[in-house]
């Protein structure tokens, strides 16, 4: 018997609890690791391309030929390498955060940017900028994480008040809640002449990432590792509160841990590079189609595919209007929104 806050998942459709396809089960573990290594190699190729794209002339010849160009080396070390690492770390962290949030909310259309998490983090950054502008970046990030945690908890609390919620209603609730946070943020930013600063938090842009300005994202990488360690608990929590309790686990503690991880990751990414929408929505859904809903099996793939997706969006944004750049958040928003509509309009995604 299911509790009101943990309604049963449908037996079919996009929102159903997925088991891995038979082909995947039959080939594990023999082919799982080689396929993951191929995916990692593909991401490394994209990272190599990212290092060579830009206005400044940086090629392997200028870097390794006799009498290497010092300026090219400086551009690589100070700008290109930090930018590429920031792209990969952001994609990995946001993808895993989306997977965790989908399991906690038990809905595939939920991620930090459709649950009000990112918008509440942006509100937190604005609040600390107005009230305590001299705080260090780490302190501002912690404040933003607190706001993100409160916003996500409010989202889940609202869902508990909708006992017979439709699978399509859940993301709509998150979008409305996020719009409320965003409206409040925009209002106060206008009042305090911070609209220009606000645009930096709401647009995922890596053009200003340099050495010394992205290292906070390594903490997000550590949090991603923690998520992998406790992945089995998130898988159980995704089955519902009653199921989790029957196994002797504390459902509230697991949810609290998951919310803390999601809030911290989202705050770090928003504070460092701004919002990058749909990463935590698209990547976990694609991985779930291939591997099912086992978090321990899925997290490495989500991390790798998240990094690759953000790298690919960045490369497209830098090439389409070369030598100018289109922000990664814009490219990811266009691609992600199209894929989001595809998931919504799929015939087997209609429940009820």
Automatic annotation (TrEMBL):
Q: What is this protein called?
A: ABC transporter permease
Q: CDD domains given for it? A: TM_ABC_iron-siderophores_like (cd06550)
For the keyword GTP-binding, the answer is no
Q: Which InterPro entries match?
A: ABC_BtuC-like, ABC_transptr_permease_BtuC
**According to its UniProt record, what is one Pfam family this protein matches?**
FecCD
Task: Give the span(s) annotated as Disordered.
Answer: 1-20
Gene3D superfamilies reported for this sequence: ABC transporter involved in vitamin B12 uptake, BtuC
Transmembrane ranges, per UniProt, are 36-60, 80-101, 138-159, 166-190, 216-234, 254-279, 299-317, 324-345
The family annotation for this protein states: Belongs to the binding-protein-dependent transport system permease family. FecCD subfamily.
Presence of keyword Transmembrane helix: yes
Q: How does it sit in the membrane?
A: Multi-pass membrane protein
| Organism expressing this protein natively | Corallococcus soli
| Location, primary (coarse class) | membrane
Q: Where in the cell is it found?
A: Cell membrane
Which keywords does UniProt give here? Cell membrane, Membrane, Transmembrane, Transmembrane helix, Transport
Report which superkingdom the organism of origin falls in: Bacteria
